[in-house]
What we know:
Blueprint: E1 4-8, E2 15-19, H1 23-39, H2 68-75, E3 81-82, E4 84-88, H3 90-93, E5 103-105, E6 109-114, E7 117-124, E8 127-135, H4 140-156, E9 159-163, E10 168-171, H5 177-203, H6 212-220
Parallel strand pairs: 1-4
Antiparallel strand pairs: 2-8, 2-9, 3-6, 4-5, 6-7, 7-8, 9-10
Helix pairs in contact: 2-4, 5-6
Amino acid sequence: MVDVIHIHEDDWGMRNLYPLTVRAEVEEDVANAAAAAEKNRDPSGFGFTAMYMAKSPSSDYADVGLTLEAAESALAPILPRVRQFNATIGSAMRSEGRDPYGSYEDDAWCFGLGTHCYLKLDAKGSLVGNIWFDLSTDESDAVDRLRRAIEAINTLVPSVIADYFLDFSGPVSDAGVLDSYFAGLADQRRHAEQAMLEYRARHEQKSPEPGIIRKLFTIFGGNR
Length: 224
């Protein structure tokens, strides 16, 4: 069991669960984000010329009464709680330096195995506000645990996935949605890894441009 999960700030809230009641809003925003990404993709193929800000739906899990206690009871048998959760710029992940604009939580409601597999609850008092997660491994146990964690939340409150990396949205309970979603995650990781290999092959004799590796991951959604 890990003591801390430390992610890059760019991964914050990119893969989400929302109550099914806001499905239409979620699907519209994911579609708008995908259209903006295509329109604003940098000619170099890396990154974007303008940023799209995802819109929060009109209600969250607090509005449907989901408590932290109920969520923890459902999640703890699947993924251990990790109380220390940090989200910072990349340089702060590689050193002891503290990111003055980073997020550092010492009593987080995060359940996971590490940066490669976690589900995060954002608290609103004693209630759950937002839920988001990430998966950046093909390791079968981690994949299975995250899937079961998503299903556990859906059992408490029917939910919809909104993934801005994958341009994917869909109700968790609909037939085939989770199969399709997890297959998409696996494909995305493979594409990111292939893009990384190709980039290194082309530039192995050069110093990488600042942030170029992160841009690759932003495009393809990997974070390892």
